[in-house]
Every structure is written in C-alpha cells, then in structure tokens.
Amino acid sequence: MEAVDALAATYEKAGKWVDLVDILDSKVPLVDSVEEKVGLRIRIGEIWEQRLGKVEEAITSFRRGLELDGRDPRVLEALAAIHLGERRFADLLPILRRQAGAASDKAAARDVRLKIAALLDREMSELDKAIAEYRGIVEDDETCIDAYKALDEIFTRTERWEDLVEVFEQRIPVEPDPGEAALLHSKAAGLYEERFSDLRKAAQHL
What we know:
The protein is mainly alpha-helical. The protein is 79% helix and 0% strand.
C-alpha cells in the first residue's frame, strides 16, 4: 500500500493524471472500508472532471461510488454538482431525491426538497409536480415560509387565485413577521373582494 501511495504522489506531483487515475483505481480493492473505496471513486471522478475535462468518465466514477454506498453524502453531492453544472436536470432530479432521503435531519431534507421543487418549476417546466412538492413540504412542516413564498409566486404567475388565497390562509397563522402577516391579510382581503366578490371573507382580513 505504501508503494501505491508513493507512486500516486509522484504522478500527482508530475501532473500525470491518467496514470494517477490508474493507480488510484488499482487501490480501490486494496482498502478495507466502503468509506475509503467511495472516497477513491470520488477522487478519481474529480481528476477526470477537473484535470482531464472528461465529464462522462467523471460521472461513471461517481456512480461507481454510489453503487458502493447509495447514501454517502460526498458522492451524492459530487453527482449533484456535476449534473447541475452540465444542466442535466433529468439526471439531477433522482440524485436530489436520494439526498433528501439520506439527509441527516428533517431540516436538511426540507432544504433539498425545496431545491427539487424549484428545479421542477424553473428548469424542467413540470409545474404540477413542483406544486405537489411544495405542498408536500408544508404538509410536513407548516412553518416552512420558503415553500409558501414559492407557491405564492407560482399561483400569482399563473393567476390561480383560489389556490393563492388558500396559501395566504395557511401562511398567516405561522408567519413570524407581523408586518408580513399584515400584508398577507391585506392581499387576502383584496382577492376575496376583487376576484370572488366575497365581502364577508374580505372583511375578516381587515
């Protein structure tokens, strides 16, 4: 193992990147832990991507790491980054879903799900799926203001007024900013009056 590491260091110092990839690849079966094996696959992928400009080879290496441990956050992040950089959104989506499933806590999972919903909306034109994702987020965490804001933007953009006023009704009780809550009341009142001619419900928000 020491000879392999010494040779790897020599190749790296000399900038012999293909030779370095080969020696690191030969090291994978020599290490014991899955964590180390995944780390080597990530290192190989980084060399392919950053030193040799070979995106497909990099993705292949990262995916080989993922096969070893499908929940390793390092390899999931590496694949997410390269797919995002290459704008391969269809490939990015399942990686983000894996990240959400492997998240260390609910807050981390929620943050990844927000990325998924934004990706569906802004990059993949999958509006209904994006809405479903945001609604799923607020079902799991009714205090997630970012999800409410995103739904607000979508429903305003698409003029889905019934859905929009429903978002206001859900958000107002959990909105931590009194000034923002007052603004939401005003917007809800305006919608009830102007879009639905419901003065009784409008008055409830004044």
